[in-house]
Design brief:
This protein is an alpha/beta fold. It folds into 2 domains: 118 residues, Rossmann fold, CATH 3.40.50.2300; 75 residues, no CATH class. It is built from 7 helices and 11 strands. The chain has a 5-stranded parallel β-sheet, sandwiched between helices. The relative contact order is 0.11.
């Protein structure tokens, strides 16, 4: 199943930036393009990016500084560096600063799309079990043939024998994902009905 992402592209080469935005938009992502780190920081409050694609040689603040800043404040964001800096030391530095993937220019836009798809699958997996239940970690929704539950309500269904606090939801959603992926079958009926935000057993 395809994972649609919100992507920020920070690239000072206008032609290449527009090409990145165009091809990623064509395959279904929501993409915002920026010429510099400063432009991105001015606008990033208006959307929440799942993935950052960033050049390193930028006017003004360095792309590496942005990578380090985002890795410190937004640990879940995916980061792909696309740069002409190609030495082993430079690539290692990019990973040390927090990049998930480092691509060297010149590169094919199809390779970039493949990297985005791979990182999206890893960061926001969609797990299906027998066609009956789907857990979408990115949208935090569990959907069945008859219901669509927020992740808290879904986890209350799955972990009915143990109180689920908001603090450990992320841990339990990961456990739920692994169980579904392994073909675990426990839910054989619809144990929860959502009515005006309340759960009823």
């Amino acid at each position: 199943m395809f994972t649609k992402l919100v992507i920020a592209v920070v690239e000072d080469n206008q032609e290449f930036r527009e090409s990145e935005v165009e091809i990623l938009t064509q395959i279904g992502h929501t993409v915002y393009g920026f010429e510099s780190v400063e432009d991105y920081l001015d606008e990033c409050g208006s959307f929440i990016a799942d993935l950052l694609i960033v050049d390193l040689n930028l006017p003004g603040e360095s792309g590496l500084n942005l990578v380090a800043r985002l890795r410190e404040t937004s640990r879940n964001i995916g980061i792909i560096i696309v740069s002409a800096r190609s030495t082993t030391y430079q690539r290692e530095e990019g990973y040390d600063y927090g990049a998930d993937i480092y691509l060297v220019k010149p590169l094919s836009l199809h390779e970039l799309c493949a990297a985005v798809a791979s990182l999206g699958r890893r960061l926001y997996p969609v797990v299906e079990s027998g066609g009956a239940i789907t857990v979408d970690v990115k949208s935090r929704v569990m959907a069945g043939s008859r219901r669509c539950l927020c992740r808290y309500a879904a986890l209350r269904c799955l972990f009915w024998w143990h109180l689920v606090w908001h603090q450990n939801i992320n841990c339990r959603i990961g456990r739920c994902t692994m169980w579904l992926a392994a073909g675990w079958r426990r839910i054989r009926r619809d144990p929860v009905t959502i009515t005006s935000g309340q759960n009823h057993w």
